[in-house]
Design brief:
- By secondary structure, the chain is of the alpha/beta class.
- It has one domain: NADP-dependent oxidoreductase domain (TIM Barrel, Alpha-Beta Barrel), CATH 3.20.20.100.
- Helices cover about 35% and strands about 15% of the residues.
- It is built from 11 helices and 10 strands.
- It has an 8-stranded parallel β-sheet, covered by helices on one side. Strands 1-2 form a two-stranded antiparallel sheet.
- A hairpin with a 4-residue loop joins strand 1 and strand 2.
Amino acid sequence: MEYRKFGHINWDVSEIGYGMWGMGGWKESDDLLSAKSLDLAVEHGVSFFDTAWGYGEGHSERLLGALLKRHPQKKLYTASKIPPKNFKWPAKPTYDFKDSYPSAHILNYTHKTLKNLEVEQIDLMQFHTWDDVWTEREEWQRTIEDLKTSGKIAVMGISMNRWEPENGISALKTGLIDAVQVIYNIFDQAPEDVLFPLCEKLNIGVIARVPFDEGTLTGNITKETVFPKGDWRGSYFVPENLIPSAERADLLRPLVPEGMTMAEMALRFILMNKTVSTVIPGMRKQRNVLSNVNTSDGKELDQSLFNKLRTHRWDRKPTAWSQ
């Protein structure tokens, strides 16, 4: 496993982290599978784990807390997220700050997360949604400073709304935000325009999420794919999204090098960008863990292939089905 510095905090984090969204809604019988996958990740050097209270109303956080107990000798970096008070994703300019992140709500859910993790301090707490119209509100600024001073959180971050990598720029400039989580992959290259240069300037840690475009970039989704009832992807990959996504994935298939999967190519594309501190693919099964961690070997994509992949940038606008 290769490690990278996490912004000005200077943590050494694994460049392949662990996204725990998929574990939030699993049944108790599946928790054993989750635990085995998490343990395997630790054994292979993964040190950054990202969860949220919203992933199963704290269930995913409790799984992470159990992992910490099983590996007390390891430094595992914990990251979670405070849900908006109105429980609406994504944030919109029309949402009042008091309905999103008032002080009491921030404190309440930070306490819930610490209780679920069974720790006194979380390494990284994040706003699960954000809109820059709230930036100048002193309430959240004072609350974050108080949480840092009291030792409840080490650092604070923002999870950017889907396809809005610049809706958070003002907040980053306050100096109170230490990390940013954003969608970044072969298709979603827009963070490179404004967000990443600012993160470099301010030395802010960058977490790249959705590396496989919710599955498109694994090469396993086609125009005929049908998702099981209750699977979130069924509401995301509506026909107006599924068809163009599959078509764009098909254009990538001829570019996948011999002996490499499309998923590996997708991860290696992200790792080529040194602004990224860590990538957090979801890894429900042990085989996913092994395939993902094996991409962290210090080897880069051929430059000509990388240049070709850059031409597959796909700029999209948020829609009713995209969140």
